[in-house]
Write a structure and sequence with these properties.
- The complex is a heterodimer.
- Chain A is mainly α.
- Chain A has helices at residues 8-12, 16-26, 28-59, 76-83, 85-119, 122-137, 140-151, 156-161, 177-206, 209-217, 222-250, 254-259, 265-274, 279-302; strands spanning 61-62, 69-70.
- Chain A has a single domain, classed as MetI-like fold, CATH 1.10.3720.10.
- In chain A, 75% of the residues lie in helices and 1% in strands.
- The radius of gyration of chain A is 27 Å and the shape is globular.
- Chain B has helices at residues 5-32, 50-57, 59-92, 98-110, 113-127, 133-158, 162-169, 174-203, 206-211, 218-225, 232-258, 263-271.
- In chain B, helix 3 packs across helix 10, helix 8 runs antiparallel to helix 11 and helix 10 (218-225) packs antiparallel against helix 11 (232-258).
- The chains are: A mainly alpha, B mainly alpha.
């Protein structure tokens, strides 16, 4: 040991620290507990606890006269959500948009993901991954704002279409409601597209070439191979990507606010926290996306979305 | 399967069109930040740098930037500690409920943003905690942990445990082994995770609107000022600055993890937690 005596760690380690360390070495359970206590404690308190408070709050109600929250438990907020046609329409609109955005993302993502995974050279592939990945992190709000600018009257889209005597099929406000839905739909599709491209790309890249060769050896033409080998194998990856596109659309209220004058679930929740100050009702409506996502995740699991992830 | 030349060409064209679709709005907003006029009419007629100078001198922008930096640093610090601990536990120990830990860490970003925001808002309200910097950091840290965790866990999966065992055999205790063997192997992955966490915190707006109270982060400043036409040129400049500030850390992060990973695993680590 003498040649190591100059090493401060060895000298210091004969003290209580060393004994604690040796104790922990013999008790791996305790070591594990020490590692997990922080992260699990934080998430249990800050997140699961918050979700529990959310569910409790959703059962409370607001006193209409004093504007104070009354801690009586009841389902009145949920009854209101189910019976009032305004909220029914908003829920259907939100879920419908999420489905339409997911479908659009899947359709656009598949060809580019296929090109990246199976046709591009290694160098191009690496560049494409970065090219798709970078905008995913470029400020979400700024991207929504960019589309607001593009949709503006006398903005870029109007200018592009004016030589053809057309006007923009997208509108931020106006009487044609479908033009507003189109604006929300295209903006969401733009925002969440990279979340679909990357998992689909990873899924396509995992398909062994030998399977495709086997298919063609057995007489399958390109179209048949694609339909009967590539698509079924890539489908779980599409489902995995759809979790993002679906959940992100359900949870957004800023996009509808900036590029349309329609309301989504999130807009009602936010308005009830801020302006109306009806926390129980906001909490009740916020549990709707949770319920939808739980169902979605169960279905996604059955379709194999988590198997290779 | 060999695709026919026509198919290959079509796919190449579609890929380029998608890239144009992805980048065109970003290019447009960069151009608008140099727009001399105060309106959004296209085409732009005259370009200027004056709004950049004005934005830089704007006290509201400076305060918001400072708030964002503080919130980002606070959230990143917490996420770094919690994410590293969780990654060490999950990748170096076998225990019941290991999958549940990963799932729990993922939950705050897997559930829709309004759910996370609303849940935190209801909790702070009920507990009587007033909204401000503290609540922003708690919210951001909660959904940033998974980014550090993913990067650290991926690195630990790739590094062999035999180095740690060797350290133990040579008389190193748990702490020494961590400091001299495990940590140096994880260092670049942790830095990458921290940069991603900072970028996410810097960028987040939906959860933040529920937890910020009177404080304004940079995205919230933009949101608040979108309704004011006279602030428009400055908003355009800040928008571009935010893109640049959130992309730089991510770009460095991909470089850092690129030393041990292929482009594919980078894509998977960042998008498939």
């Amino acid at each position: 040991m003498s040649e190591l005596a100059g090493d401060s760690d060895v000298v210091a380690s004969s003290g209580p620290g060393r004994r604690l360390s040796a104790f922990l070495f013999r008790h791996r359970r305790l070591q594990l507990g020490g590692l997990l206590a922080g992260p699990i404690g934080w998430l249990a308190i800050a997140y699961l606890g918050s979700l529990a408070v959310l569910f409790l709050t959703s059962l409370w109600r607001l006193d209409p006269f004093s504007g104070k929250v009354i801690h009586d438990y009841g389902l009145q907020n949920f009854e209101e959500l189910a019976s009032n046609p305004v909220y029914r329409t908003i829920t259907i609109r939100t879920v419908g948009t999420a489905a339409a955005v997911t479908a659009a993302c899947a359709l656009i993502a598949f060809p580019i993901a296929y090109y990246m995974a199976r046709i591009a050279t290694d160098r191009t592939r690496r560049l494409l991954v970065i090219a798709v990945l970078m905008p995913l992190w470029a400020s979400y709000l700024v991207k929504v704002y960019a589309w607001q600018i593009l949709f503006q009257r006398d903005g870029l889209l109007d200018w592009l279409l004016s030589p053809f005597g057309l006007s923009s099929p997208f509108e931020i406000s106006g009487t044609a409601e479908w033009k507003q839905y189109a604006a929300v739909w295209i903006t969401f599709t733009y925002l969440w597209l990279p979340y679909m491209i990357l998992p689909v790309y990873a899924g396509l890249e995992r398909i062994p070439s030998s399977l495709l060769e086997a298919s063609s050896d057995l007489g399958g033409r390109s179209g048949t191979t694609f339909r009967r080998v590539v698509l079924p194998l890539a489908f779980p990856a599409v489902v995995a990507g759809s979790i993002f596109t679906f959940s992100l659309t359900l949870g957004d209220y800023i996009t509808p606010q900036l590029v349309s004058s329609t309301q989504f679930i999130g807009n009602v929740v936010y308005a009830n926290v801020g302006i109306a100050n009806n926390l129980p009702f906001a909490a009740a409506y916020a549990t709707v996306p949770v319920a939808i996502m739980v169902v979605y995740l169960v279905v996604a699991r059955r379709l194999g979305a988590f198997e290779h992830v | 399967m060999t695709e026919r030349p026509l198919t290959r060409w079509l796919l190449r064209i579609v890929t380029w069109l998608v890239l144009v679709f992805i980048y065109a709005p970003l290019v447009v907003i960069v151009l608008y930040s140099f727009n001399a006029r105060r309106t959004l009419n296209w085409p732009l007629e005259e370009l200027t740098l004056k709004w950049w100078g004005k934005a830089f001198d704007n006290p509201g922008v400076r305060d918001a930037l400072w708030t964002s930096v503080k919130a980002g640093l606070g959230a990143t610090a917490i996420a770094l500690v919690l994410g590293t601990l969780a990654a060490l536990a999950v990748s170096r120990y076998a225990f019941f409920g290991r999958d549940t830990v990963s799932f729990l860490l993922l939950l705050p970003i897997a559930l829709p943003g309004i759910v996370t925001g609303m849940a935190l808002n209801a909790t702070f309200n009920t507990a009587g905690i007033s909204l401000g910097m503290f609540t922003i950091i708690v919210g951001h840290a909660t959904f940033c942990v998974v980014l550090v965790y993913n990067n650290a866990a991926a690195r630990l999966r790739r590094t062999s445990r035999s180095f740690e065992e060797a350290s133990g055999d040579l008389g190193g205790d748990t702490w020494q082994t961590f400091r001299r063997v495990t940590f140096p192997q994880m260092r670049s992955a942790l830095l990458a995770g921290a940069l991603l966490a900072f970028a996410l915190s810097f960028d987040e707006v939906i959860v933040t609107t529920f937890t910020a109270g009177p404080d304004q982060t940079l995205p919230i400043w933009i949101l608040a000022n979108l309704a004011r036409p006279n602030q428009l040129p400055i908003v355009n400049v800040v928008a571009v600055a935010v893109i640049v500030l959130s992309i730089i850390p991510v770009w460095i992060a991909t470089r850092l993890s690129a030393d041990t990973t292929s482009s594919r695993s980078v894509a998977r680590e960042i998008t498939e937690p």
